[in-house]
Amino acid sequence: MRPFMSVMDRHGCAERPESEPFGRPSRGAGICCYRGSLQAFVIAVAQPRRRGAQACRARRRRITTTDGPAAAVRRSAGGTMTQSDELKRSTIVLYGSIGMPLAIIGYPLAVYLPPFYAQELGANMALMALVLVLARITDVITDPLIGTLSDRWQTRFGRRKPWLVMGVPLMLVGTVQIFMPPAGVGVWHLLLWTMVMYLGWTMVTLPYSAWGAELSTAYHQRSRVTASREAYVLIGLFLAALAPAIVQAFGRRFEAGDTDGALMQAMVWLLGRDGQFGIGYGPILASMAWLLILLLPLTVLLVVTRVREAPPRTVKRTDWRQGLRVLKKNGPFKIMMLVLLIVITGEAFRNALSVFFMQHVIQIQAQIGLMYLIYFGVGILGIPFWLSLGRRIGKHRAFCVAVLVSSVSIIGMFFLEAGQLVPFAVMFALKGFCFAAFQFLPLSMLADIIDLDTARSREHRAGLFFAMSGIAHKLAMALGLGLSLGLLALVGFDATAQNDATHLLALRVLYILGPVALYMLAFFIAWNYPLTAARQARIRHRLNRREQRLGVVAGGAS
């Protein structure tokens, strides 16, 4: 059975899970962000209810008494799965709530921060690109440190909770300083407080993700936990897209002279600067900061005070050097990492230039918030389609279809002129429709790769695989951001001035050809991806037979 997924039997119930499907909570548990959580959510909400529920429950009762190596581990620790593994619904709902503010913060960092500092604060584009790349690199460096410390540092309050409590102030202060900076600041202010914000982000997200995997040892309980978290993530993404649309609607009213009313005055006081309010990017970022100030402390307080931590378990620690040597010999993993690096670099490249393109080329600055609301709304609605297509033609081929559709939609934007709002909205929505495929399908393919490694090595290294993919994701984000802004500065584009036709053409070419070239490179690499559905089924069959043999041996020994 693939980690984070379940294979349905004829009654519609899940087959026996892998032993420790989320990776052992060892040295790698804090490092791994368990990025397959979106996959778990999608599978949890997409699976239909089928007949035979009574047979399914009976099967699960049998499974919990003889579930292979996991049962042997629990018996050796002093018993089988008990009611302590059953989590209350309120616990699952509360735990997932932190996913909402965490989702809100990531979107404006990629989309609105570069134009805000370049246009409204007058920051040098090339220097800003360098600063943001350096901040991202420090984030990569702190990941393994915070992950290891949160695994090993035991306090009277637990291992994970202290990190969340310490990380929240850093994250809030850093975000406020970045999104609502004092007048006259420059890129060095951005560097300092972005590093502080990323440090707080790491201190919250890594222990939080590891904590979720430790809440229960039961496979289906873990699926419910991750489903809850990712449901809140989707809510957070929707809020992050809705807030700019609302702020810009009020900004248009303010610029038209409608400055009366208590609600308008509150918006000016909270989001404006020096009594001024409009459709710029400052009010949008300020709204995101206020959402974070409101939601992050509240959700962390509820989780820390109402959700228990699992007691630490004594487990064999992962030998990371040996694990890295194994990864080098895993052909599908190397291909997948290369594809992820290329595609995420292309996505970061496009995201950093999207607002510039919409404002200066299409000239729809007042509707940018609405465009992203459509983008994420259509993306969320597209999740079931990409799941279904992945089952029908294979995950890697479905991913290639998404890459191709994205490329076609972006190429179509090349021919648009100023003021063509509706055609741009259609093409932008088509790109947004591929959002779920870009987020979900590579993670699902990575789960299959973990099965391959388990079949070869007889060990479970999910934490190692997802940690490496997380590092690759952050490095690709830094590379895409730095390349896009650096090249935009190199061609002479000035975000604070009225650019001539040559500079606008350069922006158009970068926005279109940059990501499309990277997408198509990933397309050709991924098309002949070797780990197909048929091969994965054979690997899964071998693992199931091995677990059955181990389960029989463990049952006899007990």
UniProtKB/TrEMBL annotation:
<feature type="transmembrane region" description="Helical">
    <location>
        <begin position="163"/>
        <end position="180"/>
    </location>
</feature>
<keyword id="KW-1133">Transmembrane helix</keyword>
<feature type="transmembrane region" description="Helical">
    <location>
        <begin position="279"/>
        <end position="304"/>
    </location>
</feature>
<feature type="transmembrane region" description="Helical">
    <location>
        <begin position="125"/>
        <end position="142"/>
    </location>
</feature>
<comment type="similarity">
    <text>Belongs to the sodium:galactoside symporter (TC 2.A.2) family.</text>
</comment>
<dbReference type="InterPro" id="IPR039672">
    <property type="entry name" value="MFS_2"/>
</dbReference>
<keyword id="KW-0812">Transmembrane</keyword>
<dbReference type="InterPro" id="IPR036259">
    <property type="entry name" value="MFS_trans_sf"/>
</dbReference>
<keyword id="KW-0472">Membrane</keyword>
<feature type="transmembrane region" description="Helical">
    <location>
        <begin position="231"/>
        <end position="251"/>
    </location>
</feature>
<feature type="transmembrane region" description="Helical">
    <location>
        <begin position="335"/>
        <end position="358"/>
    </location>
</feature>
<feature type="transmembrane region" description="Helical">
    <location>
        <begin position="364"/>
        <end position="386"/>
    </location>
</feature>
<feature type="transmembrane region" description="Helical">
    <location>
        <begin position="509"/>
        <end position="531"/>
    </location>
</feature>
<feature type="transmembrane region" description="Helical">
    <location>
        <begin position="464"/>
        <end position="489"/>
    </location>
</feature>
<feature type="transmembrane region" description="Helical">
    <location>
        <begin position="398"/>
        <end position="416"/>
    </location>
</feature>
<feature type="compositionally biased region" description="Basic and acidic residues">
    <location>
        <begin position="8"/>
        <end position="21"/>
    </location>
</feature>
<feature type="transmembrane region" description="Helical">
    <location>
        <begin position="422"/>
        <end position="443"/>
    </location>
</feature>
<protein>
    <submittedName>
        <fullName>MFS transporter</fullName>
    </submittedName>
</protein>
<dbReference type="GO" id="GO:0005886">
    <property type="term" value="C:plasma membrane"/>
</dbReference>
<dbReference type="Pfam" id="PF13347">
    <property type="entry name" value="MFS_2"/>
</dbReference>
<feature type="transmembrane region" description="Helical">
    <location>
        <begin position="92"/>
        <end position="113"/>
    </location>
</feature>
<feature type="region of interest" description="Disordered">
    <location>
        <begin position="1"/>
        <end position="24"/>
    </location>
</feature>
<dbReference type="GO" id="GO:0008643">
    <property type="term" value="P:carbohydrate transport"/>
</dbReference>
<feature type="transmembrane region" description="Helical">
    <location>
        <begin position="186"/>
        <end position="210"/>
    </location>
</feature>
<dbReference type="GO" id="GO:0015293">
    <property type="term" value="F:symporter activity"/>
</dbReference>
